[in-house]
Amino acid sequence: MDRWELLSLITSMRREIGLTDRDVMVLRAHLTVLPQGPLDPSRLNVSFMGVAEILDRACGMDARRFRRGEARLEEVGLIRRRLSANGRRFPERDRSGRIVNAYGIDLAPIFEKHAELLRLKDSLDAERLALRSRKNSLSARLQSLLRHLTASAQALPDWADALRQTLRNVLRRSTTRMEDLDQIETQLQQLEADTETPVDSFESVVPCSPPCPSKRYETVVSPDRKPADAGQSVRHIESEPKDIKNTQHLRFDKKRIARLWAETKSIQALYPEIPQTERSLANTLFQFSSFIGLRHDSVTHSLSSLGWNGMIPVLDYLSENITGIAHPDRYLLTMIKSFQAGHPIANGSVVPKRLERLSARNPVPV
């Protein structure tokens, strides 16, 4: 079993499970302690590294917070704390030096709950798909109704604009529930009845069925091909990742990324494997930034100014100094403003292009 796929599964459902980003960071730190390679659920999977040592693998997290994270992981049933009488963590070996038992954090419960976690993820995915389909259906019905009223020169009811604004707010909220959509649909049905618009005049939107939880599949679509697409096809139901800015400094250079990765401390400790694609690099950096308290939009804004080559050392610098930073987002914004003003940041590891060119033209004599 791949530990990173397991961690990714838990990370994607952390809110539903009841975990915070810091709790996930604690779990990740313990997973890095286990032997390299695929994990075998039938073997001993105990993290027995001392807290003082393992804190370095959790971005220097405070020991009390780290232990609280362990307690929370045990509460939700993902780990089991097996400490010695004096609270120490250590392995027990036989005469040949082979580890036969250990005191520490037992990760066996994760493997026991793996099938349950997969079923939960399938259920959540189905609920999200049904919710999204319902949102699309209500939005299409309202827009079709408003177009019909406009075309027939009928006056809009007083509460039509209020309903449109309410629906817009509901569609944008990430915490929207089916009950919220039920209320919207009731109001929409009343509006349709008041306007006496025949049902068949609306654009029909058929909600797509949720996927079967026991099967994961992709729908094959055969789009029209044009000469300009060179036989390539893209499924329109999948949103393409948004380009932050198509600028020169966002070019993905694997060799450059590898060198920068090797120079990091916290990032390399948590992610020993260097991302090989631009998408995997983005996913890794956004996930890492959430561990140190940065918002997604703050990282996106910073990335548009720094590029990949600047963002990696900046995030590592913030992680190394996070204990002395009260507001990470504000601190990062200040760094970006300083960089845009032409000053080096992150202890001089990220230098504006203008200073690099000046340094190249006027090298310091030896």
UniProtKB/TrEMBL annotation:
Residues 217-242 are annotated as: Disordered. Residues 1-145 form the Plasmid replication protein C N-terminal domain. Residues 217-228 have a biased composition (Basic and acidic residues). Pfam families: RP-C (PF03428). InterPro entries: RepC_N (IPR005090). This is Plasmid replication protein C N-terminal domain-containing protein.
